[in-house]
């Protein structure tokens, strides 16, 4: 079946870090208490190695602080009628290129150690992880809002190092900031392993406050949807895992520190 899209450009789009017009970056809340609050352990879904979760990535108190803050951002409602070939998505969203915050999520939460220091999962990511996509996205799904079946693209990025560092994204990261504990009913992320929407084959991931959902994207992305929210609000923070792209260059130096410039990756968003 044709892969429904939700944003352009298409898969494999290359973005180069170049100076852009200055923007005011969000003053993201500090990580209090210091993270991680528990040992972070990626748990693979029993049905597929293309889905994993990390429980208690954010404690509930920090999730509350972030929801309070995110409500102050200038969220925009997505168009009601998608372009041809794009999936129907009804939500409110905000996105910003913020390399410093992406680096905080990678370096100051325990995520880097959880994904690179665990022998059980370190070979899943498609290469050597070098941080997170600075294209940070915020999603709010209110009652009646949803994201129809779609796939997430992988994106080729080029970091502004000397020499330039080719990287690409391989996994989507979705941090659930609300769940039924905060009154959100519905909104599950549901995967269909055989590229068809059959209830008998669905893999449903329920919302758990503070849980980080990781799923493989690009050519190996599973067809998936964000189910309609029946009541309350579903808040999600999204980024993507970046790996060193050896196929696009040799003698590449690994970049672990944020740069002063940002790069925007228009992935198919959830």
From TrEMBL:
Its cofactor is L-ascorbate. PROSITE patterns: FE2OG_OXY. GO terms for cellular component: endoplasmic reticulum. Residues 1-28 are annotated as: Disordered. Residues 1-11 have a biased composition (Basic residues). One of its GO terms (molecular function) is procollagen-proline 4-dioxygenase activity. It comes from the Eukaryota. Residues 131-243 form the Fe2OG dioxygenase domain. Gene3D superfamilies: q2cbj1_9rhob like domain. Keywords: Dioxygenase, Iron, Metal-binding, Oxidoreductase. The keyword Iron applies. InterPro entries: Oxoglu/Fe-dep_dioxygenase_dom, P4HA-like, Pro_4_hyd_alph, Pro_4_hyd_alph_FE2OG_OXY. The keyword Plastid does not apply. This is Fe2OG dioxygenase domain-containing protein. It comes from Metarhizium acridum (strain CQMa 102).
